[in-house]
Amino acid sequence: NRDMAEDILGEKIVISKVLVRNEDGDFLVVREREDRDKETAGKWELPGGRLKYGESQFEAGARELEEEVGLEVNPDEGEDVVRIEVEDDSLVSCYIVYFPDFKGEASIRDESHLSEFRWVSAEEFIEMDWHSNAGYDIVPMKDLKKYLEKENIY
Known about the structure:
Blueprint: H1 2-7, E1 8-9, E2 12-19, E3 27-32, E4 44-45, E5 48-50, H2 57-69, E6 79-86, H3 87-90, E7 92-98, E8 114-120, H4 122-127, H5 141-149
């Protein structure tokens, strides 16, 4: 499958997940549809997806954010928050990237994959029922926790 080959850099699947905040300081999260035939069905995750060949984590994050929830961000304004390796399980490398600004109103665009979105506080974010592949139970995520607890992000 040629598309799959383009998504995989070397042997590794590379994913970009996006953090955006609204004016109340809440973070956008999305929920996978319950009727999908996967263990991740009905679980919460950050918007995002696989890098296509030649894309940076910021370009991929911006593309996926628009495809999934209709928000526009400038890839040049992206900042790396943390990069997670899930090598033992599935050769996945996941970037979590933050965009300080977005345009548009969030709505679910990819209804085959996602059922809803929600804006949540940092406290709620840490307690969400994340899906197993989201990587949020992995040690480097303590960096994200620190990041979420910051009063202001510059």
